[in-house]
């Protein structure tokens, strides 16, 4: 029973690592050159602070997710792992929300503020950002599951 | 010792309730009419989906924060409280990040996307939104402290 649980957790952690890593790579490689009337401009993730934050948070979470794979299950540091899981889940949630909010303005615009949507001009860029956000969302959901599972088992000594 | 802890937790929860409630009220009452050349427009929180989400999340967190004050310390539901703390901390983090990201664009603009900053036109509105975000930030920090404290004590049966 304990072994099955261990394998499940390991699989979830591997999935989370894959999700955060691909979110960082897909967002990090997103760019497109476009011509708008006579003006040529390049849309890049690094122009938008929220997207930069998203890449940095996912890189950090990937490094943590990689290191924690080698954490022995008998170690006494598991309380630290749960606390770090909380911190990294927060970091990922926060970066995903910030990137989503800006991407929403990019897609729909904001008529009150006079901000026009830009997805019509840089469609490929928009799709790539959307893919990165989807991968980031999967990462957040898996970390959330791992966290609630830790709380469910670890907070009840009878279940461990 | 247990009583001091109980009082500390209660005080933190009261502070968190005050922070989320004031964040919701300050953001919810933010609006300003401005004239830009010949055009008159009204800046309101409800025009921006991220700010609406911020208000809703803080209202939900306030209701939860109010109800949990009456939760008896001997109750067996404390594991549910920790899990709900995780969920609400996530919700607050996510709404704060989304609102911050949009507020940042409102303050600084985004030259690549052609979005102009609007804080020059609606200064009072911007300050009020800034105040709401500060209160929301305090709420997130307190919930984070409560969560890490729960993990610190509750995950170690010897410390309870």
The Cα radius of gyration of chain A reads 19 Å
Helix fraction bin of chain A: 55-70%
Spatial arrangement of strands, main beta sheet of chain A: 1-2
SSE run of chain A: HEEHHH
Overall mean pLDDT of chain A: 86
Number of domains of chain A: 1
**What structural class do the secondary elements of chain A suggest?**
mainly alpha
> What percent of residues of chain A are in strands?
5-15%
- Given as residue ranges, the uncertain stretches of chain A (5+ residues, pLDDT < 50) are none
> What is the 3D shape of chain A?
elongated
What about the largest sheet of chain A? 2 strands, antiparallel
DSSP strand count of chain A: 2
User: Largest interface, counted with CB-CB under 8 A?
Assistant: A-B, 42 and 42 residues
Counted by DSSP, the helix tally of chain A is 4
Cα distance spanning the termini of chain A: 10 Å
Oligomer: homodimer
List keywords for this structure.
elongated, 2 strands, about 160 residues, two-stranded antiparallel ribbon, about 70% helix
Compact summary:
2 copies of one chain form a homodimer. Chain A has 160 residues and is mainly alpha-helical.
Could you describe the 3D structure shown?
2 copies of one chain form a homodimer. The first copy, chain A, has a two-stranded antiparallel ribbon. Chain A contains 4 helices and 2 strands. In chain A, a hairpin with a 2-residue loop joins strand 1 (31-36) and strand 2. The model of chain A has no long low-confidence stretch (mean pLDDT 86). The first copy, chain A, is 69% helix and 8% strand. The longest helix of chain A has 32 residues, at 123-154. The termini of chain A are close together. Chain A has one domain (2-29, 46-154). With 160 residues, chain A is mostly helical. Chain A is elongated.
């Amino acid at each position: 029973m304990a072994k099955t649980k261990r394998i499940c957790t390991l699989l979830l952690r591997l999935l989370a690592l894959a999700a955060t890593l691909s979110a960082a790579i897909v967002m990090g490689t997103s760019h497109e050159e476009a011509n708008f009337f006579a003006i040529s401009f390049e849309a890049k993730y690094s122009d938008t602070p929220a997207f930069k934050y998203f890449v940095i948070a996912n890189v950090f979470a990937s490094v943590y997710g990689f290191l924690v794979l080698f954490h022995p299950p008998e170690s006494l540091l598991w309380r630290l792992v749960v606390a770090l899981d909380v911190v990294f889940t927060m970091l990922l949630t926060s970066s995903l929300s910030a990137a989503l909010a800006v991407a929403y303005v990019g897609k729909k615009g904001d008529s009150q503020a006079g901000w026009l949507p830009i997805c019509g001009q840089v469609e490929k860029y928009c799709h790539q950002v959307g893919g990165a956000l989807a991968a980031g969302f999967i990462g957040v959901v898996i970390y959330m599951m791992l966290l609630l599972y830790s709380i469910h088992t670890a907070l009840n000594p009878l279940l461990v």
